[in-house]
Amino acid sequence: MTKKILLIEDDADIATISGELLRSAGLDVLVATSVEKAIAACAETTPDLALVDIRLPGQNGFEFVRRVRADDRFHDMRVAIYTVHEGEAALMAEAEELGVDAYLSKSQTEVLVDSVRRLLATPV
Amino acid sequence: MKAFKRYATLVVSLALLAAMGSLAVATSAGANRKAQSIHRADRLTQEHTLAGLATQYQLFMAKEAFDYAAAARWSFIPGDPGDAARLKTFVTKATFLKYAAVIVDLQRHPLNAYAPSTGLPQATDPGYRPLLGSLLTGKPGFSSVMSTGTVPVVAVGVPILDGATPKAVFIGYFRPDESALQTYNETLHYGKTGVGILVDSAHTVVASTNPDAVAKPAPAGPALSALGAGKEGFSEFTRNGVRKFVAYSPLGQGGWAVYAEQDASEFFGPIRSGGFRVVLMLLALLAVAAGALAFANHRRQLALRQAYEYKGDLLANTTHELKTPLTAIRGAAMTLGTRWREMAPEQVDTFLGMIHRRCDGLAKLIEKILIGARLEAGRELALRLESIQTEPLLRRIASEFQDASPKHDVVVDADDSWVGADQQAMDQILGLLTENAIKYSPDGGRISLACHREGDYVRLSVTDEGIGMSAEDAERIFDAYYKASRGDQQTFGGVGLGLSIARHLVQRHGGEIGVTSKVRRGSTFSFTLPAVEAPVVGHVQTMVDVR
To answer: Tell me, what CATH number does A47's domain have?
Structure first.
C-alpha cells in the first residue's frame, strides 16, 4: 500500500521540490501550509509520516508535534522535523524532547527520499 | 561620547536638581527675608501703638486727677464730710480712676478717703514710693501695682495746688485687672505665643494680653534690663530653652514701660516654613530625579535586552531568509539534474524559473543586508542626483509589482512632478515600500502608488489595505531590525531592514518619511523629495561615498 506523506511547508518552491522527489519515489504527498491545516488533514486521512517545518505562519512546527503526540488517533504516525535550521542544538533538543522520530535537513535534498524510506521502515 | 550619553540623564537630572534647588533656596530666602522684615516692622508698630496708648492712658489718668484736684474746693480738714462727699463724687464720675480716691497732706497723713469695701493698700505700701518720688520732682506720680489684700490697685497722685504752692496730694486709684488698658490689651494678637505687657517701675504687670498675668511680677528678660536703662529696642533671647524675640519701649511716666514678646519659632515662622518648603521641594526634586534615573536605567536595560533579543532573532531570521532560497535553488537544481529526463518540459520550466526567481530574491536580500551593514557601520551611500519625472517611475514600479503579484491590484495616482533624486535610490525606496505593502496585504488588496507636488517638495506615497500596525509599531517601524520584535517574521518573513534603508535613502535626499496606519485597515507610507521645476539636462551632483 502506498505510504502517505504529509508535508507541512509554507514555502511553495520547497513544497514543489520535495513533493516531486517524494512522488517520484512512489509516495503519496499531501501538502499543508500551516499547523491548523495539517491537523485537519491528519484527521481526514492519517498519514504514515508528517514532515514538518519549524517556522510556519501562526503556530510553529513544534506545536504540531505537541498536538499530534497528545492525540491517540495519530499514535501510528511518524513525525519528522524538516528544516533549514540543521545543527541548531536548542531546536534539536526541543524536537527530541517532544518525541519526534527524526530531525531532517531541507538542504540535504539528495538524501530526503532515503531518509523518508528508512523512517517508514522503522516500526512505530 | 558613549559614556557621556550613558550618564547624560544623570548629569542633566543633577544639573536640573541643583538649578531648581538653588532657585528654590534663593526664592524662599528672599521671600523669607521680606516676610521677616514685614513681621518685624509689624511687631514694632504694634508695640509702639501699645506704648502710645499706655502713655495716653497715663496722661488721661493724670489729667483726670489734676482736673478734679484743682476744681474741687477742699477743706483739708481730716475726716471732713464735705471732702468725703467730693471724693465719692469723683470716684463715681471718674472715667479712669474709678476705684477709690484719697487726699493726704504733705506729710503723707490721710485727710479723707472714699473707697469700696475691698479697701485700700496700707499707707506704708512700698508701691507708693515711685508715686511720691515723682511728686517730689513736680510730676504726677504713678505707684507700682499694689494690693488691698483682695484686689490689685494702682495709685495716681497729683498735687493739690494753692496758686503755685502744693497744699496736699490727691490720689486716685484704678484696678489694673479691670482697666480699659487691660481690656484693650486683651484684644491684641501676637499669635499663639505672643504677649503684650505693660509693666510698672517695679516690673509688676499693670496690663497684659494674658489677664492672669496682671499684678504679678513680669518674667525676667532682656527687655526689662534694657528698660531699666531707659532704652527702647528689639532683641532676641532664650527663656527656659525657648528662643524668643521682644520689642520694648519705656513710657514717659512713673518708670512704666511696654513690651511685646513672642516665641521666635512663631515669629520667624515664615523662615521655618520657608525652609521646610525648600526641603520639601528638594525632596520632591530628588524623588523626581531618582525616578527619572530609575526610568532611564530601566529603559537602557530594556533596550539592551531587546538588542540582545533582536540579535538572537536576527540571526535566526537571517539564517532562515538566506537558507530557504538557497535550499530551494539547490533542491531545484538537484531535482533537475537527476530527473530532467523523466520530467515534462513545463515542469522543467517551472524548476528553472524557480531557480531564477529565488536567485533574484536572494541577490536582493543580500544587497539589503549589505546596505544595512554599511549603514550600521556609519558609511553613507553615494548618490547621483538627477531630475526624475515621477509618474513614469511610479508606473514602471507598479507594473513590475503587478506582474510579480497578480493577486494584488497595483494602481497609480500621479501628477506631473519632477524630483531631484538618485534614480537607483528612488527605485530602492519605492521598491521597498511597495514590496512591504504587498507582503502585508491580503490577496485582492489594492496598492496605490501616488505622487503630488507640495511646495518645494514632492510627496510620494504607497498605500495598502493590509494588516496595518499599532501606534507603537508605527513609531519604531523604521528602526533597523524592529520587525524582529513583532513576532510576525514567521508569518511574513524578511529581516526587518527594508524600511530603515528606505528612511536612510530619503533622509540622504533631504526628505522625510513617515507612516500613518490603522490596525486591520492598512497603512500609508509617504516620503518627500526635493521638487525640481523642469528636467535639467546634465545636472549631476555626486555625493562621494566616504569609503
So the answer is: 3.40.50.2300
